[in-house]
Amino acid sequence: MKNVYILLFCLVAFYGCQTGGGGQIEALEKAFNEAPNQENAGKLVAAYEDFANNNPSDTEWSGRYLYRAASTYFRMNNFSKALSMAEKGAEQFSGSSVTPSALQLMEKIERTSYRRTDKADALAAGIIEKYAGTEQAKKVGEAYTGKKISEWITELKSFADTTKGRLDRRLANKLIGAYEAAYIVDPDGANSGDHLYNAGDIARSAGQSQKALKNWEKLYNKYPDHDKAAQVLFLQGFIYENTYRKMDSAQVRYEAFMERFPSHDLADDVKFSLENLGKTPDEIIKQFESKNK
Q1: Residues 109, 193: one domain?
Q2: Residue 66: which domain range?
Q3: pTM of the model
Q4: How confident is the model at residue 17 (pLDDT cuts 50, 70, 90)?
Q5: Which of 28, 122, 153, 224 is the most buried (most CB within 10 A)?
């Protein structure tokens, strides 16, 4: 299967020689294909990323180049970076023609490189639903024959509700993975913000604070007017303050909250947190007693 990705890489590079990043990238691609070592891979990936970063409005070619970057990392057996690059391309340039291939690569890495079947199944379910009839959907369907992602989420959520909030780790991870997959296969969809919020909410309940922060950060940055925007700003600040004791990070979130949502129901709580950031409970009590003498 790896040979297939090498062939895909070469074909995509061939058809892109006369457009996109032009001669510099073409030369780097040629050098890498002639000598596929870490040094040439690093130079090539950097050129791909530079193009995407400098041309955010060029959805097609920025998406293509990030997919090529992912394919390059995959070829070099750097699966974590391949996964990260494919996800970045699918998320930021979802309208590119290579997005289904980027998602398929993500599914392949999760299933065969990391053996994370639940994550792979969630991605496969999302690809099959979003890109029904495509070659990528047919391919992932060879390993996954279950429900569509929307049906999977409904079933998992229904089961979780019957546990009255007592999520075991496996169920929590499956739900988080399902919501994240539903988001990444359709990051501009009507329910994408809700998927990110739900993934973060379940992660927090399961004690996975870093994953909660990651999903809520995406939600706030991509959908700043989402109806949960104020809540996720507060929750991010709360986690930074009380879980990680990173007061500077907490302060940034709290101040952003007060600037944007001064009349929100949580505003008094945020104001209190800002005024007492970094203080111990004893210090807060003594301060309260001093004011009321």
Answers
A1: no
A2: 1-115
A3: 0.86
A4: very low
A5: 122
